[in-house]
Amino acid sequence: MGRERSHDVVFEAQAVSAGRMRNDITVHWPQMGESWQLATDEPPGLGGDSSAPPPLAYIVAGLAGCLMTNIRMMAAHFEVPIEELRVAARAEWERRVTPGAPHRAATRGFLLDIEIDSDAEDATVLRLVEAARDGCFVEDSLTEAVQVSHRLKLGYGWQEL
Amino acid sequence: MGRERSHDVVFEAQAVSAGRMRNDITVHWPQMGESWQLATDEPPGLGGDSSAPPPLAYIVAGLAGCLMTNIRMMAAHFEVPIEELRVAARAEWERRVTPGAPHRAATRGFLLDIEIDSDAEDATVLRLVEAARDGCFVEDSLTEAVQVSHRLKLGYGWQEL
């Protein structure tokens, strides 16, 4: 086997608050020259107007979509013909509240049920899915403890948090 | 301070492949009785048709949106008036390739630059943002190593991976 190479995959976004809980977000993928307009909102029960999906809907869709895309890419790589592909996903978080204090977030975990229509043998389908898990950027970001850095603009300039 | 209580926050999704790299995804938030239709695709360079944002665009939007939503919720909690709120986000992954083998995913990290228009003192704004980080479900899911479980339907039934 040859030497491993690494290619950067970079996404950028500019987001601005709009309305009560709505955020308008432009996401760029500079390497591909593509941009998308996305928005998030919250239900009225959380002070929003339900004008767009909540942020957590995007996380669940991003995880399921990433795994499925990788299953198709690995099917091409291993030359395994697959027909329909379905995933049922479940994401569980906890909102922890102590009276008088603001809520805190915790994550219980994610569960993905995968169905692949293929004439290939079970062992081949299994190998395909394991390769897709290793290739899925979102699964890596969730299962590894990754760094989320913040800078906040204050009166005297940018403060690293 | 009173006893801490925990409330479940559960999202479910059903996703089906459609087209070359496209996935059509229905996301439900049962507790709120809301659903959204989302789709993912890839650029032509990756075998897709660019008919929808790629999964990683949803992850970046979900992270930025979640933090911003929490900043607004914490502003309400702490009774700190804020005007406009802007976030610039950057997400960096690596696609690792060894010749002949399928790609593997790695995550470098996420960077969020936060600008808040507020007459409040710097220390108050800082406290607000720190509370928002603790309250952000997406930041928790990324910075903690969380469980992503899979079940794959094989010829003999469901296999846990």
> Percentage of helical residues of chain A?
25-40%
Residue share in β-strands of chain A: 35-45%
Rg from Cα of chain A? 20 Å
Structural class of chain A: alpha+beta
User: Would you tell me the overall average pLDDT of chain A?
Assistant: 96
CATH architecture of the largest domain in chain A: 2-Layer Sandwich
At the fourth CATH level, what is the homologous superfamily of the largest domain in chain A? K homology (KH) domain
Number of strands of chain A: 7
What does this structure look like?
- The structure is a homodimer of 161-residue chains.
- Chain A is an alpha+beta fold and 161 residues long.
- Chain A folds into two domains: 53 residues; 107 residues, 2-Layer Sandwich (GMP Synthetase, Chain A, domain 3), CATH 3.30.300.
- Helices cover 27% and strands 40% of the residues of chain A.
- Chain A has three helices and seven strands, in the order βββαββααββ.
- A three-stranded antiparallel sheet of chain A has the order 1-2-3, with no helix packed on it.
- In chain A, a hairpin with a 2-residue loop joins strand 6 and strand 7.
- The model of chain A has no long low-confidence stretch (mean pLDDT 96).
- Chains A and B meet through strand 1, strand 2, strand 3, helix 1 and strand 4 of A and strand 1, strand 2, strand 3, helix 1 and strand 4 of B.
